[in-house]
């Protein structure tokens, strides 16, 4: 099909929708009526409008000369309806009126049905929307392209006892003769159709909290109001933070944050009516770990950043979705860092950057921005490269330009394009104006080519030389590789003396001298925010390792993370990685969880690759590194310790209880779990995840039964997720099979793809989960939301146990033949990661 057939005519623009919707939750249907005031730039006799899975019963067109019936036909392939007139109407103002019906689907897209169990254990229904990217057309006929901004004036006809929420504030609520309640909402500012939302059903709203004149509420299942305090606090903080940062008032008149029991994504930035997965909004903060709380603050901050960047100013077309999401990711991190500086958010962001670089080290990576003709092509943009790579590249740019000039440029961009649409280059122009730096040429090298460079530092005589080369896990450059050649790298470097002097150098050649060599070792990517990996010559790394205590936390994280990436890429051997890990152990203790997360990852990969034969050897290495840390921290939190210490303790206990199989740690986990089972005591929240992991790794049928019961009757959605995660970590065959079976029935379709993905990654469960997915693929793919299918299969990228080495062709065959709903490079990426990991595990088996 050609692009033109898919695109709307540019000569007709909607201005104002008056939309009335009456859902029937029992029948899972709805009916609606709609009047759209439009402006035609040319005379017309036909209108193409987006609509799919809708029956348009009547359509009339009214202009100053009269009202005319339109003949309705459907172009299902292009998700359009044609409204044809017998006569031609002149350019100018006109209105379309329509009556239509539709279905509330169960695929978590468009206007759909979600359910939960109430206190009487009955299943109750709500109806809710998720429109991005192109599913508004499943709920009402509309001009469903981001540039077709219009005002939306919405009314909902609902059961009298039900709540009704939409983007605008409620202006009136009247009882109808039918016994139903009619709720009218204030018109929105001009917005794109993908940002419209309505939610209806037996839900409750908290008492509004006013921040800068904006009432903030949490909408939730009845009985959960005591679990909303933390979300209100995070939302209030974000509204204030962004109002000040952008220097522009919050662009709507109210803010509702709505917890939806079934939700395909994390959250959705519908203006004034943001929808969330329950576990990303509803929490007992006294019973949550720091990372669980941080995730909630991240997501709330991200969505509220979109109220300005995305909703007030919107991309012209879907190729711009990356900037929308990358910017929100960058802003979320700034905002969370401000919410609680003790969390050291930019250090944990280092982990996200490194995870993005994992995908970006594949020849099957993609440029951040690429042409999008058909809107379905943009589905592939909702991935780690858009969010985490995009956010990292913006952070690197901000550090290069300076925070204040960056803020000023962003603010002027938002002012200039408020209520309208913009393109990526409009932001670069605004930043060039505020900073006088070559922003566009610098960013083009990161945005329009995939991959990133490995920057090597070495001494040559009296010179310090840097060189850049493309980094990849699989060597060479196969045909079709999307990894670029050369980048414009805003390099930072400093000497490990006692001064704090930071030097910068814009490296846009393959090789350059950056300084005279000195007797004090020099590090590059100083301060740690660059989106590149670093290698040092053998001579330099030997100078740096004894000085590792002089690095900042993020620099130390990068040193170990870059070492590990080079092991995966076969650039250094495993013992080189252990050298750095041992230095961390020897010179510390560094009580830094991101750093130790990389060490733990390196040990876990080796353990899985080597299999049971060498598990004791790896266990000894892990024990030598992690036991001293436990001796420093102890099993129980000190009253005055920072929350991040709890994160590290949890990692230590997890490694010691699973990889090392330390009897004392296992006994600690089991006795804590027994107290939880008997109701004597509850688990320390920061340790709950690790304790459950150890229980599952060593657990039996009785443990499983308790975990399952807690999953079914959790105290809040976070606890539900914790216990679900534990269900995926048992290692006895019947228990693995039981959890897999539940993914076809009991586990919500929003969660099950991730449960399977995790089980694919497990050393014991991996091969069993692979067979399960291969044998049940059709059933799984038809049950889960389309956007999550590739997330499920992603777990196959880390199948590399010795058993899988012998069955590699089965995995290759599956990945070569499987069909997934989304377009883009996801499957190619999974295949390449599978091969890279297989090669790594074969190397480790021969080396170690
Ligand atoms: Zn977003």
TrEMBL record:
Pfam families registered for this protein in UniProt: ERAP1_C, Peptidase_M1, Peptidase_M1_N
Cofactor(s) required, per the database record: Zn(2+)
Keywords, ordered alphabetically: Aminopeptidase, Hydrolase, Metal-binding, Metalloprotease, Protease, Zinc
Sequence ranges assigned to domain Peptidase M1 membrane alanine aminopeptidase in this UniProt record: 230-446
MF (Gene Ontology): alanyl aminopeptidase activity; metalloaminopeptidase activity; peptide binding; zinc ion binding
Keyword DNA-binding among UniProt keywords: no
CDD domains documented for this protein: M1_APN-Q_like
Annotated EC: 3.4.11.-
Ranges for domain Aminopeptidase N-like N-terminal: 13-195
Cofactor note: Binds 1 zinc ion per subunit.
Taxonomic superkingdom: Bacteria
GO CC term, one of those recorded: membrane
InterPro entries in UniProt: Aminopeptidase_N-like_N (IPR045357), Aminopeptidase_N-like_N_sf (IPR042097), ERAP1-like_C_dom (IPR024571), M1_APN-typ (IPR034016), Peptidase_M1 (IPR001930), Peptidase_M1_aminopeptidases (IPR050344), Peptidase_M1_dom (IPR014782), Peptidase_M4/M1_CTD_sf (IPR027268)
Residue positions of the active site: 303 (proton acceptor)
Record has Metal-binding as a keyword: yes
Binding residue positions for Zn(2+): 302, 306, 325
Family per similarity comment: Belongs to the peptidase M1 family.
PANTHER family for this protein: PROTEASE M1 ZINC METALLOPROTEASE (PTHR11533), PUROMYCIN-SENSITIVE AMINOPEPTIDASE-RELATED (PTHR11533:SF174)
Protein name listed in UniProt: Aminopeptidase
Taxonomic lineage of the native organism: Bacteria, Bacillati, Actinomycetota, Acidimicrobiia, Acidimicrobiales
């Amino acid at each position: 099909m050609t692009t033109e057939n898919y695109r709307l005519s540019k000569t007709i623009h909607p201005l104002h929708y008056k939309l009335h919707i009456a859902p029937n939750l029992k029948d899972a249907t709805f009916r609606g009526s709609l009047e759209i005031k439009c402006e035609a730039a040319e005379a017309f006799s036909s209108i193409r409008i987006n609509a799919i899975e809708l029956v348009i019963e009547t359509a009339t067109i009214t202009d100053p000369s009269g009202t005319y019936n339109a003949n309705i036909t459907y172009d299902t392939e292009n998700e359009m309806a044609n409204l044809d007139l017998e006569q031609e109407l002149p350019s100018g103002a006109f209105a379309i009126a329509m009556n239509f019906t539709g279905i509330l689907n169960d695929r978590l897209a468009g206007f759909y049905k979600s359910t939960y169990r109430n206190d009487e254990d009955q299943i109750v229904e709500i109806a809710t929307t998720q429109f991005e990217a192109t599913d508004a057309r499943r709920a009402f006929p509309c001009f469903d392209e981001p540039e077709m901004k219009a005002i939306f004036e919405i009314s909902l006809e609902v059961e009298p006892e039900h709540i009704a929420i939409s983007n605008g504030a409620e202006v009136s609520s009247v009882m109808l003769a039918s016994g139903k309640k009619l709720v009218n909402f204030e018109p929105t500012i001009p917005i794109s159709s993908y940002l419209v939302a309505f939610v209806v059903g037996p839900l409750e709203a908290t008492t509004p909290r006013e921040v800068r004149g904006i009432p903030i509420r949490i909408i939730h299942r009845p009985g959960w109001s005591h679990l909303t305090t933390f979300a209100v606090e995070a939302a209030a903080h974000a509204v204030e933070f962004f109002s000040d940062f952008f220097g522009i008032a919050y662009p709507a008149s109210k803010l509702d944050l709505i917890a939806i029991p079934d939700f395909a994504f994390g959250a959705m930035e519908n203006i004034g009516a943001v929808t969330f997965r329950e576990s990303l909004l509803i929490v007992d903060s006294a019973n949550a770990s720091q990372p669980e709380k941080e995730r909630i603050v991240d997501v709330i901050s991200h969505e509220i950043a979109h109220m300005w960047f995305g909703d007030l100013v919107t991309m012209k077309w879907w190729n711009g979705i990356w900037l929308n999401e990358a910017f929100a990711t960058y802003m979320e991190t700034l905002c969370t860092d401000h919410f609680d500086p003790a969390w050291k958010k930019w250090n944990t962001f280092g982990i996200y950057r490194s995870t993005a670089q994992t995908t970006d080290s594949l020849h099957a990576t993609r440029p951040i921005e690429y042409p999008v003709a058909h809107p379905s092509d943009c589905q592939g943009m909702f991935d780690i490269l858009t969010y985490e790579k995009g956010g990292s590249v913006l952070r690197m740019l901000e550090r290069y330009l300076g925070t204040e000039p960056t803020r000023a440029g962003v603010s002027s961009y938002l002012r200039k394009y408020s209520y309208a649409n913009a393109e990526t280059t409009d932001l670069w122009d605004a930043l060039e104006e505020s900073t006088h730096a070559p922003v566009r040429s610098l960013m083009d090298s990161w945005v329009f080519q995939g991959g990133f460079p490995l920057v090597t530092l070495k001494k040559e005589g009296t010179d310090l030389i840097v060189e850049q080369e493309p980094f990849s896990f699989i060597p060479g450059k196969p045909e079709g590789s999307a990894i670029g050649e050369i980048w414009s790298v805003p390099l930072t470097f400093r000497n490990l003396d006692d001064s704090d002097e930071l030097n910068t150098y814009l490296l846009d050649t393959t090789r350059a001298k950056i300084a005279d060599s000195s007797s004090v070792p020099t590090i590059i990517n100083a301060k740690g925010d660059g989106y590149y990996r670093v290698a040092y010559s053998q001579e330099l790394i030997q100078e740096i390792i004894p000085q590792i205590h002089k690095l900042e936390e993020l620099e130390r994280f990068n040193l170990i993370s870059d070492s590990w990436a080079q092991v995966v890429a076969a650039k250094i051997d495993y013992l080189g990685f252990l050298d750095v890990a041992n230095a961390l152990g020897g010179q510390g203790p560094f009580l830094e969880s991101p750093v130790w997360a990389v060490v733990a990852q390196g040990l876990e990969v080796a353990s899985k690759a080597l299999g049971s034969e060498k598990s004791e050897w790896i266990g000894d290495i892990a024990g030598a590194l992690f036991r001293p840390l436990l001796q420093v921290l102890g099993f129980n939190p000190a009253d005055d310790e920072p929350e991040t210490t709890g994160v590290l303790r949890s990692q230590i206990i997890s490694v010691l209880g699973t990889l090392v199989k330390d009897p004392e740690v296992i006994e600690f986990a089991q006795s804590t779990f027994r107290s939880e089972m008997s109701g004597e005591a509850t688990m320390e929240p920061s340790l709950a995840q690790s304790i459950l992991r150890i229980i599952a790794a060593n657990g039996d049928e009785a443990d499983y039964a308790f975990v399952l019961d807690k999953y079914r009757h959790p105290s809040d959605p976070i606890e539900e997720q914790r216990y679900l995660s534990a269900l995926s970590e048992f290692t006895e065959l019947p228990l693995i099979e039981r959890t897999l079976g539940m993914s076809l029935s009991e586990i919500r379709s929003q969660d099950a793809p991730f449960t399977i993905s995790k089980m694919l990654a497990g050393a014991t469960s991996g091969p069993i989960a692979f067979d399960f997915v291969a044998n049940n693929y059709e059933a799984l793919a038809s049950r889960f939301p389309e956007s999550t299918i590739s997330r499920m299969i992603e777990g196959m990228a880390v199948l590399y146990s010795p058993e899988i080495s012998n069955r590699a062709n089965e995995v290759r065959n599956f990945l070569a033949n499987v069909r997934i709903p989304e377009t883009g490079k996801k499957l190619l990426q999974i295949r390449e990661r599978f091969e890279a990991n297989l090669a790594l595990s074969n190397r480790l088996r021969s080396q170690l």
